[in-house]
Design brief:
The structure is a homodimer of 110-residue chains. Chain A has 110 residues and is an alpha+beta fold. In chain A, 64% of the residues lie in helices and 13% in strands. Chain A is built from five helices and three strands. Chain A has a three-stranded antiparallel β-sheet with strand order 1-3-2. The structure holds a DNA duplex (30 and 30 nucleotides).
DNA sequence: TTACTGTATCACCATATAGTAATGTAGTGA
DNA sequence: TCACTACATTACTATATGGTGATACAGTAA
């Protein structure tokens, strides 16, 4: 690794990975990546209940993955961390690569 | 987001983020990114105890982040997933960017 | 004020998991 | 065989956290 990472930095990195380690939060982020949303819209689009969505949004906001704007009764959330999409893409690409390796192994009978 | 990600894919992505969400595992990966290691070497370099290191290695291997080669009494581990370094770098860059934003805000008194 | 709505928070339970001591297993050498 | 080493696994505890119903809070409108 280019930079030697201190245990303190690694803890902060781990903490950010932890926030991304819940399917429910990724569902929320995935919706938000298509554009800002109110909480109710997120409830509709994710199928999660309102308390649950609010709780996840709270954590996502505390870790600066999303930000909130208030408009009357509504809380409008949007993605604040431009790296979210990239991180998911990298993970997704690896999943695909592994799937290909696996099917190649099965195919050649290796 | 370019690709619409199904809930199933998001679960797999979340699972991989979860594996990276432990400081102890990041410490191990961070050492392995500098080159393959035996378990004892990892114990020495991370300060974790042997059972703990073995358990984390088990999980890292089950999720294909590392791979193992046996040589006599030794188990030699190495990083198997080329994306690990990139993922940590992205996270680290974001932390730095946020730190800069913060100090800029404090600096201008904005 | 009252009534309604959208969102946040609280309290609780159930589950998952990190850490660890003890034990098991496998390879090596005498 | 026995003894030693390197590693893996088991059993257990303590803690953290996701989901949820109930409730609180804030904005709007009458």
């Amino acid at each position: 690794m280019a930079k030697p990472l201190s245990p303190e930095i690694l803890e902060q990195i781990a903490e950010r990975f932890r926030v991304l380690s819940e399917p429910a939060r990724l569902r929320i982020l995935n919706v938000l990546l298509d554009g800002e949303c109110t909480v109710s819209e997120l409830v509709d689009q994710t199928g999660l209940n309102q308390a649950n969505v609010s709780k996840h949004l709270s954590l996502l906001r505390a870790s600066s993955f999303v930000e909130r704007r208030k408009e009357g009764l509504y809380s409008i959330y949007s993605v604040a961390d431009p790296s979210v999409g990239l991180l998911c893409e990298v993970m997704c690409d690896r999943l695909e690569a592994r799937a290909e390796e696996l099917s190649a192994m099965l195919g050649t009978g290796s």
